[in-house]
Design a protein that fits this description.
By secondary structure, this protein is of the alpha/beta class. The chain has 10 helices and 13 strands. The longest helix has 23 residues.
Length: 333
């Protein structure tokens, strides 16, 4: 969908937060039957960050990311109209955890809601926020993508556990008089028939057909890794190609492709197929693993703080995850 509305949107500030505890591949070698070589070869991951349950949580990461993004934007939390928080691991159903996070930064009357779209969450949130600001009804919206997957990871499941880490990222989106600025194309799509490929059973009766005979743990993520892999490899490429086609932009016009960090092999396969240069596809999965809704925010913050995102640049955001969901968002910065 392309945009025709009266107002533009600018990314006024960006921030991220990762936990202090580092879990390396060598640590996994002591926990399960695996090797550093296998993990690096299959996923590109060397280490991930996980919360210290005594002092850190999805809440502290989201709060710290929001505070940093507000500081970066020079905007007070009291000036926000809305806070959208994308997460699968907040642990809160009531109130919206976005309310607690915003209050953790300072007093505000912002509207708050949570959004669950698995790893696609932050890009869904950006798309929604852009549309709301362009409508003229909202001026300043914070979008947070954050997950502490360590809380729902079965560390005895060697195939799944090695992939995941904890992290959060936030962006402050504000109204801009230049209507050309902001999200110029967006998609939020899915294949709902494959919802069971990546799921979190919270009750015995939620266990799906393919998983019935497996030794599973309630409250821990379950995934058909190979099938998710096959889907993701082609979907990544197709979503980028479609975004370029619909906007009439070429790869050369794009300054950065900000991709969900699911697996380095998945990102590299799309990169090779489309012929994208290394400097336009920032990969940090080697340091943080797959942090679900947090990953895009951390990648973007690294690029932003390094001065690699400039006014007038075109940036493509692409994410996919459980649902199956996927989303794209093309921005003129
Ligand atoms: N260490 C060593 N061996 C392992 C292992 C580990 N941590 N995990 C699995 N294996 C073994 C398997 O038991 C299997 O052995 P077998 O051939 O004797 O049966 C073999 O390695 C291959 O397993 P497989 O599951 O086919 O591996 P894979 O190449 O598909 O890689 C993933 C596994 C999870 C890395 C890969 O499927 C993947 O990245 N999928 C996408 C996941 C994803 O992106 N999810 C998030 C979406 S947002």
């Amino acid at each position: 969908m392309t945009s025709t509305m009266a107002y533009g949107v600018q990314i006024a500030g960006v921030g991220s937060a990762v936990p202090s505890k580092v879990l390396t591949n060598a640590d996994f070698e002591k926990m399960v039957d695996t090797s550093d070589e296998w993990i690096v070869q299959r996923s590109g991951i060397h280490q991930r960050r996980i919360c210290d349950p005594e002092t850190e949580s999805e809440y502290t990461l989201a709060r710290d990311a929001l505070k940093r993004a507000l500081d970066d934007a020079g905007i007070d939390v009291g000036e926000l109209d809305l806070v959208i928080h994308a997460s699968t691991t907040s642990g809160f159903l009531c109130p919206p955890s976005a309310a607690r996070i915003a209050a953790g930064v300072g007093p505000t009357n912002a509207g708050t809601f949570d959004l669950i779209a698995a790893c696609s969450g932050l890009v869904y949130g950006m798309n929604i926020a852009d549309t709301l600001i362009r409508s003229g009804r909202y001026r300043n919206i914070a979008v947070i993508g954050c997950d502490a997957l360590s809380t729902i990871t079965d560390y005895e499941d060697r195939t799944l556990s090695i992939l995941f880490g904890d992290a959060g990222g936030a962006m402050i989106l504000t109204r801009d008089d230049d209507s050309e600025r902001g999200c110029i194309y967006q998609t939020m799509e899915g294949d709902c028939s494959r919802w069971d490929l990546l799921y979190l059973p919270t009750r015995e009766q939620d266990v799906v057909e393919w998983d019935k005979d497996n030794p599973i743990k309630i409250g821990k993520l379950r995934m058909r890794g190979q099938e998710v892999f096959k889907f993701a490899v082609t979907k990544f490429r197709d979503v980028i190609q479609e975004a370029l086609k619909q906007t009439g932009l070429s790869q050369e016009d794009i300054s950065q492709f900000v991709c969900h960090q699911s697996n380095a092999r998945i990102i590299n396969a799309a990169k090779q197929k489309l012929g994208l240069p290394d400097e336009k596809v920032h990969i940090n999965i080697q340091n943080f693993g797959n942090s679900s809704a947090g990953s895009i925010g951390v990648v973007f913050d690294e690029l932003w703080q390094a001065g690699k995102i400039n006014r007038g640049d075109y940036v493509v955001f692409v994410a996919f995850g459980g649902g199956l969901t996927w989303a794209s968002s093309v921005w003129k910065i």
